Structure formats: structure tokens, C-alpha cells
Amino acid sequence: MAAESSGASVAALTALVRADLDLLNWRRRPGWVVLRRHAGGAALLDVVVIGAGHAGLTAAFGLIRAQIDNVLVIDRNPAGRTNQWSTFARMRTMRTLKENTGPDLGIPSLTPRAWFEAMYGADAFARMERMPKDDYQAYLEWYREVLYLPVRHDTAVIAIDPEGATDADAPIRLRLRGAGVASETLDAREIVLATGL
Ligand SMILES: Cc1cc2nc3c(=O)[nH]c(=O)nc-3n(C[C@H](O)[C@H](O)[C@H](O)COP(=O)(O)OP(=O)(O)OC[C@H]3O[C@@H](n4cnc5c(N)ncnc54)[C@H](O)[C@@H]3O)c2cc1C
Known about the structure:
Blueprint: H1 7-23, E1 45-50, H2 54-65, E2 71-74, H3 112-120, H4 122-127, H5 133-146, E3 151-152, E4 155-161, E5 172-178, E6 181-193
Parallel strand pairs: 1-2, 1-6, 2-3
Antiparallel strand pairs: 4-5, 5-6
């Protein structure tokens, strides 16, 4: 479908989403979670979401919308190649209905349909039976960008350290491995496992 796409319409939709979110005070109010620090003074992340697929991105949006904004999403794959739709899935279209919503969390301009119609027009949406998987992945990429979601790509979580697991106040330590980083740790108050099937 790329040949018929309209960059101008997507830019207009991006502006509309940001205006809608601004009306909802998106990122304009400070977070309500009290910042906690390590003994050394460094700030602790409130939530690390592991996995930047459909679920992880939506979780990050939901958290930030709830003003829990000290959040980081980590994915072992590069941007644009996060999950099956851009890698090993062999079908051409999604199995799910084209009208499905979800990641938008109730904001109409953020739905897959709004993005698809901005790209290809309302007629193309009406004619289509199921959304091509590549388009759905492109929608997720746009979603990440339009919301400025903080995603660190090319970084795998290789262990979740149980140290201090019996102490509710102890941070959760993640061990990471990524491009150019042999081993690194990251501490968070809470984690969300959105690692897929
Ligand atoms: C071939 C195929 C086709 C499908 N088609 C549909 C469909 O049409 N409609 C539908 O609703 N569902 C479909 N599904 C189901 C689909 O998996 C889910 O709907 C959707 O991908 C779930 O999103 P998710 O975010 O939970 O997982 P995913 O999209 O799988 O995302 C998980 C992410 O976690 C990352 N990750 C995993 N482990 C780590 C780690 N240790 N460290 C860092 N990052 C990590 C991965 O790189 C990935 O990006 C399909 C599944 C498959 C396999």
C-alpha cells in the first residue's frame, strides 16, 4: 500500500493526536510518584516495561497517562523489528478484525483506523478486509513516535535479580545485554513483563 501513502495526512494526524493529548493535560502535570533514590543518590526508575511490542507500548502509554512518568521500555530488537509482524510471521494480513482498537486507550485519533485512513484514505480502509501486518507494525512505530515513548532498543533483559525479593521496598535489579554493552544492571521499583508469547 506504500505507493498510495500520504505523509502530509499522517503529519496532520500526528499534530491532531498531540493536540488531543494536550487537552487531556498529557505530560503537562508532574508525576505523583515520589522519586526514590539509591543510597548513592541516583534516581530509581519507577517502572521498567520489558518488551516494546503491542502490549509493552500500550502499558507505557497507560502508565505515563496515569502520571507515572519515570518509565523506561526495553526491547531486545531494533526499532521497526520488534515482534513477529516485522520478522517471522508469514501471513500477509492480521488475523484480527480491522476495526479492533486498544493501544489508543480510548483516544480516537490514536486508533489503528485513524492512522490507516491518514496513510491511504477512508476508501482504502472501507475496501480492505484485514489490515496488512506490515501496516499494523508501521502503526505501532508511529504510535511509539507520536507519544514520545521512551524505548531503549537492541537491549535484552537477561536476568531479573531476586536479591531483596522479600523486602517490598527493595528495587528489582535487571541484568541487560545489548549492542556494545556486554553487561549492565538497571534498578526499578516495579517491572512489567510484556515479552509476548
Ligand atoms: C505469527 C503470529 C501472528 C499473529 N497474528 C496476530 C493477529 O493477527 N492479531 C492479534 O491480535 N494477535 C496476533 N498474534 C498474537 C500476537 O503475538 C499478539 O497479539 C501481540 O504480538 C502481542 O503483543 P505483545 O506485546 O504481548 O508481544 P510481542 O508483540 O511479541 O512483543 C514482545 C516484545 O518483547 C521483546 N522481548 C522479549 N523478551 C525480551 C527480553 N528478554 N528482553 C527485552 N525484550 C524482550 C520482543 O523483542 C518483542 O518486541 C500473532 C502471533 C504470531 C506468532
